[in-house]
Amino acid sequence: MSSIIDALTTRNDVIVYDSESHACILDGMRMSLAKRFVFPHNNMENLEKQLDRATKRAEQQGGGVLLITEGVFGMAGDLGNLKAIAEMKKKYKFRLLVDDAHGFGTMGPTGRGTGEHYGVQDQIDLYFSTFAKAMAGIGAFIASNTEVVDYLRYNMRSQTFAKSLPMPMVIGALKRLEMLKTMPELRTRLWDVVNALQKGLREAGFDIGATESMVTPVYMHGGIVEATNLILDLRENYSIFCSMVIYPVVPKGDILLRLIPTATHTLDDVKESIEAFSVCRDKLQAGEYQTETFQDISALRV
Hints:
By secondary structure, the protein is α/β, with parallel strands linked by helices. The chain folds into 2 domains: 2-180, Aspartate Aminotransferase, domain 2, CATH 3.40.640; 185-300, Aspartate Aminotransferase, domain 1. Helix content is 44%, strand content 15%. The protein has a 6-stranded mixed beta sheet, covered by helices on one side. It has a 3-stranded antiparallel beta sheet with strand order 7-9-8. Strand 3, helix 4 and strand 4 (95-99) form a beta-alpha-beta unit. Helix 1 runs parallel beside helix 2 (23-31) and helix 10 (224-238) crosses helix 11 (267-285). The longest helix has 20 residues, at 184-203. The protein starts with a helix and ends with a helix.
């Protein structure tokens, strides 16, 4: 993703991007010589102001405008407002680059991504996604018209000076792509699990924000020691593994536990997870995770 931005833009171009864009997007912009303007997360009114500024700047410099956002924002699980952004193409001239790492394979009637979910997939000029999420592998891809793809193939440093994917991963990716196309029941099962988990967490009093995707954040309060002990308890005593997100990714004093349901999970898994999270939340609020000597795992086993 970083190399895409670097290869696409020059000092004459202007980038407009969402403030909640992934770190790889920020890294790509740091490598680029293009001028950049940021708009507050999903704030379409402010985006239009930034597009107006960017358009004037690009015209002065003889460059173009690249608008970057995400399909599914990987931390909060909410969606980029791709429909409103696509509508702005009627007024402003820009290319739209969408990072849809979490949307590919899960969003839309056929799993083509968040653009399909909104009915604007054909308005996305450059579509980036990864093989590491829905396809459970390694590697990534960029989809665009032939001219752009050929240009990127020979101008992206990450590709020019890197080896190809191992052949077993290529074969595996092709097989998984075939499964995404021919086995819609997997996506149906995934969303059954997602809906049950998110509904259950909300009913149990958990704050999961405004997620609209399978990414399920659980927001709590505490320090690094408490967060570490909490996920240790979940893993060792409840056999639940989840990602822990702490400062500086989130503000000090906040804990974000990031759950990613899959089609292989069951509704029993969902029930068990909600019950375990409820117990651990009570321990967190009671101060049981505050000590740095929270190591007596055997005493905590259920």
